[in-house]
Amino acid sequence: MSKKIYLLLFLNLLLCFPQHFFAQTYQLTGNPVNTTGWTMVAPTVVNTDFVQLTPDTNNQSGSIRLNEPINLKYCDKWRVEFDFRMDSNQTANGDGIAFWYLANPPVASVLGSGLGVSQNAVGFIVGFDTYNNTTTAVMSKVHVAYGQVANTTDNNNVEFFNVAGSSFHSPDMNTTLPFQGTTYKHVEVTAQVDPAAPANWIVKITIDGNLICSQSFAPSGTAAGMTVGYFGFSASTGGNRSRHSIKNVKVYIDKVAINQATVTDTFCPNPSTGQGTVNLTNYQSQFVTNPANYTFSYSVSGTPITNPNNFQFSANTTVSVLIKDNSGILCDNPDGKIQLNLSPFTATPATLTACNNNNAGTATFNLTQANVNEPAGSTKKYYKTLENLNNGVNEITNFANYVSAPGIVYVKVTTPLGCVGSAPITLAFFPPIVSNDATIESCFIEGAPTTASFDLTQANVTSASGVTKKYYKTEADALAETNEIVPANNYISTSSTVYVRITNLAGCYIIVKITLKVLPPIYSSVLMDKTICIDDKTTLDAGAGFDTYLWSTGENTQTIQDVTPGLYWVQLKSGRCTTMQMVRVNPAPQPVISNIDITNNTITVNVKGGKAPYQYSLDGVNWQDSNIFTGLARGEVVVYVKDAYDCTPIHVQITVPNLINAITPNGDNKNDYIDYSALAYKKNLVFTIYDRYGNKLYEADKLRNYKWDGTTGGKKVITGTYWYTITWNENDKNNTQTTYNGWVLVKNRE
Question: Has this prediction a pTM greater than 0.85?
Fold first, then answer.
């Protein structure tokens, strides 16, 4: 075959991951040996850490092979290593072990001297032979065949395959490197493409580090047309026997791992030629991480591309990519594909939608967000009119922050390949937020009747769903989103205005006004405080026009009757609000006779308290406006007084003393002294004498028995007129102060 037969893609045991084929070795290792992905033909079995191809009995043939065929077309190198052991309890040993890569591996036991290899086997065979079919002696030889081996008789198997350039037979090593024994032998088989003859493999075989074979092998016969094959091992016994075992098998046939199998790109055709132009080497890093470590070749339908740096195509094209490992360790990977598509560019119209915040009439648009179906890397320029676009003038430079009313602008797109297209961009507003100003009424707060508590969230300012609302004292705060009212459901305020900022899911907002109205208390204009006599009763009337009434007495009528003095309240409901109004029924204050002045037989009644004007009486029947009574008889007198409330009169009993105007203190026991001891029963009685200048001369109290004998300081006063005052408190509840003024003539004889 005119291509390298290399262990490519050996198996399905190579782990496959998405977008990356991970290189791996096929193995028969472990304890017990893991044979997943391999097929054994009886009597081959796993025995702990080794695979026993045959037991130590006569006429046995067994094998083990990979399940999936391997294509070595793209492999420059491959290597297999394993350990074998041939042991027996007798000296007549045979036949041996074979390692192979065959198009037709054994699928059943193949008896005979062919080391368990299938009849008419096509492929590459390495035999480790211990039985000489010519001399019947025990031997230790290595045979190599690259072609078709009949293997139908004892003299047409691998031992007898002799094709120049396609076969090898080692000397007998039974004395220097015997294959028989209980100790495992380590084998390495390596192959690489022969640079001088690329269809050939240069194969090296070592046993325990001893080089057995190193030559170039050409495929012969039907092996030259071989495309895929199966790796495996087999062994057989005949008249001689051994137990044939292998372990630590490793087959190295990894190919270059790629990150992804297909890269797709789309191009705008050159307007003048209709062709796309691409540098295929630009995609290398998408297939492998370090492109410099690999050699890439490209083809279309098997035709090599000679100028990948400037590949031109006029229709959608699939390019096959072959990736070769420069170190020659990994097999070539032919799985890469570059899908090139031609797509003439046409810009598509687009629409941008932005917020008409607070009904400003304009919005801010980011024109770069308009998707007009431009390819990556395109440049775009924006214009207010199509004429400006065509002439390339008046370009919009603030395209990322373009403030505009609804309308149309135009974009000119230039693709990386130079294709040019233009399209209109429609500038539109989001639908407006349905909103309206609102008014909230709330009842006054008792104790601060000019204020109320408002639940701003109850203001019916919008019917829109999916919105958020925030509340502010001023419109400026709402615009700046500062000084938010929190909480909004218990805002204490006088009648005023606040503002709500309504924001929808698109981030658009509108600010509307909420008028706050404090519902003031409504009082009865007819319900007034009253003053009545303390033992009287009255009626309280809250007046008509209220929805409900509730008095502190529990009554719920407009009026309540038989009300005695005291403090009352009534709750007056008008609409939503209830006003509590206090009303006091005062007991009329009684007047008090503060003092009474008596001069001779005239009294003057002085009154305080109560409500003027006062009326006066000496019998409680006949009344006068004057507070002076004259011509009174000496002795006890009752004085009555009532005020403007006309309640039960107050009264006081007073004494009009006897009038004494002269004394002659000469010791004759006649008129020797002035005596008011008859008033001694009065409280706080004081009898005081003054000279004509108002100087106090004498005070007759209880100790002096309320008498004066015309002396002062133990000496007689000179003859003359003297003045005196008698004061006391009447024995009533008010201790009415009474004053009696008089004069006396004292005649003292020298």
Answer: no
